[in-house]
Structures are given as C-alpha cells and as structure tokens.
Amino acid sequence: xxxxxxxxxxxxxxxxxxxxxxxxxxxxxxxxxxxxxxxxxxxxxxxxxxxxxxxxxxxxxxxxxxxxxxxxxxxxxxxxxxxxxxxxxxxxxxxxxxxxxxxxxxxxxxxxxxxxxxxxxxxxxxxxxxxxxxxxxxxxxxxxxxxxxxxxxxxxxxxxxxxxxxxxxxxxxxxxxxxxxxxxxxxxxxxxxxxxxxxxxxxxxxxxxxxxxxxxxxxxxxxxxxxxxxxxxxxxxxxxxxxxxxxxxxxxxxxxxxxxxxxxxxxxxxxxxxxxxxxxxxxxxxxxxxxxxxxxxxxxxxxxxxxxxxxxxxxxxxxxxxxxxxxxxxxxxxxxxxxxxxxxxxxxxxxxxxxxxxxxxxxxxxxxxxxxxxxxxxxxxxxxxxxxxxxxxxxxxxxxxx
Length: 402
Ligand SMILES: [Zn+2]
Hints:
The protein is of the alpha+beta class. The protein has helices spanning 30-48, 87-102, 113-116, 129-146, 152-168, 175-180, 185-190, 193-212, 219-229, 241-248, 252-262, 269-274, 311-315, 337-346, 389-398; strands at residues 5-12, 15-23, 55-63, 68-71, 75-81, 278-292, 296-299, 304-307, 322-327, 330-331, 352-359, 362-369, 371-383.
C-alpha cells in the first residue's frame, strides 16, 4: 500500500503488530484503530497462547467505497468507505479484524494440500471451508468472550443473528457441499452461510468436545494442537481430515461430522447449549404489535430479490425471487441498502410503501400497506436458573481458555 499513511505498532504474544492506514481526507489514523484493537489482540494472544507469526500487518484503506476485508498470510487488508472517526467505526473495524486476524491459524497453519498448492487460475474447492471460515468466525467471537471483552448477552446475540442468517438461506445445503461448490453460482448463493452456519457448527463442536473430554479439551485446544502438528508449509490430506480429527479426539466426533458438516441435519441448539445450563428458545412472543413488510428482501451476491411474499403482495402482482430495484422511488444498491433499511424501520402498520421489481427486463411497481403482526424475539439463548452444578461447571469451563 502506497500513499500518505499513518503507522502504529504494538507487540502481542511475541509478534510485532503493525497498523498502516490510508484515509483519503485524514479522518482516521492508525493509532486510533490500534487503541481500539488492542484488547482484541490481547484476547487473541491468550486464545492462541503463542501467535503463529513473528510479524503481522493490518492495512486499512479508507476512501469512497466499502469493499470489505480479506486476509493474506501475514497481513489483512480492509477497504472501507471513509467517515468521521467514531467509537462505532473503531468497534466495527475491530470486529472484522478479529475474524481476519484469526486466519493466521485457519487456514494459514491448518489447511489441506488444495490450499497449500492453491490454483488461482482455476480454483479447486476444498471441502474444509467449514474449518477455514466457519471455525475462524466462531473463534473471533469465542476469543472475545473468553478474553472478557464481549459479554454473554452480546455473544448470545451473535448466535441469534447467525441462526437468523442460516434460516434465510437453504438449510438443507451442507457445509461440505458449500465448500465444494463455493466457486459455482449455486454455491455463491449460499456462501454467506459459511460465516453463519459454519460458526454455529464450530460452537457446537466445541461444546461436544468439552463434554466428551470432561471439560478438559475443547475446540480451541484441538485447533492449537493441529496448528502445531501442521503449519504454513505442512498440509493435511484433504480426504482424510475428518478421520484425522476424529482419531485425535473421540470416536463420537465422526458422527458429529456426518450429521452437521457432511449432512445438514437441524442443528441441536437446545440439546447442546442445555449441557451448559443455557436454554434455547426458537421464538418468544413479546406481547407487542409490530409492523411487517409482508416479505423478506435478500441479497444473492449479485442482486437484491424479494422472498417470502405475503398474500397481499402476491395478489398485487409480485412473484417470489423478483429482482428488487427500487423502494419508494430510490434505487436499491449495495451503497444505499443501509439507508433503505433505516427507512423501513420507521414504517408503522398501515403506512404505505412502493416497491419496484424488474422481471424479464420490465419494471413493475406495486403499492402496499404495512401489515401488523405479533412481535416475537427469535432464537433466544438465556442462562437457565435451574441449571445443575454439573451444567454450571461445564459452562464455566466453556467461558474460559483452558
Ligand atoms: Zn474469512
């Protein structure tokens, strides 16, 4: 990265961490970002005990558009729309950075030969995307929970959001299949779920390992062992990884992989979180009446579509998966979807709105009134006041680095 950069440096668990920032009109500086990231980096150091790199660099680029973040072997890069520096901006950057930074473990230090010899011209998929992205996303939250920089209600909120995402895509699409089809259009439509279902399965695998080991060895400990066994230059055999992992841990883990990674059985939140004295309730009525759009907009990776249309919208002429191009006359795009979502939240039952869809090259505009429905809180995790001492003990183990 070239340009007018600010720099900040720190040291975490034996590694030098550098932050470089380009901010188009000098609104955001490296030391502001690093200050906010410091406790996350410390938590990552505690989670990993020893960082697997000697030096790591965060490259921040703030200009006119947001393009997201991606990891390299010894650095990660963030291309984000510039705005005034705020605590929220810094928190958002830290949250993305926690995920990207954890990639130094998976896949940099734990990967199959397909990733080792990755063909960038004709990408060959690896079935173990659940490990590279799902476990990474799980770890980025778990290390913050265990480092006490994320509280339990926030962690539960992260789980709920991920369940909601999983429910918004095809829940019969297994993580193995998602890994193997991720370079196809079909796989791309499911891709976001590797961060949702993938992380949820990582969390369940952690609980199962803690249970089977009597609270001695969870997913963190197994991952740290695997990072020592393998490394940047030593890959695991793509076809044998499930068997290797099972052999390193417990025979029951083969069944876990079969059901929740190779297949897509419904995820056992009630049973697994129950082991920790945490209840899971799919839906709790709040007693409030709330406004409902009567449909669910979704992003396919290429365009916005309208799904789960209610009867009034179907009668008005919309069809399932119509391409959504405008809302109240504003064009729908990645740049302004945030503003449109804010506008949507202001609408009350009975308020009217207009949506425009494009079907076979033709624009169709439909006017509709907001519906009213019972408010519910979905995918709720709560501490069980009736938890047994045994459940509480496993929960305490689950909440810290062993
Ligand atoms: Zn990632």
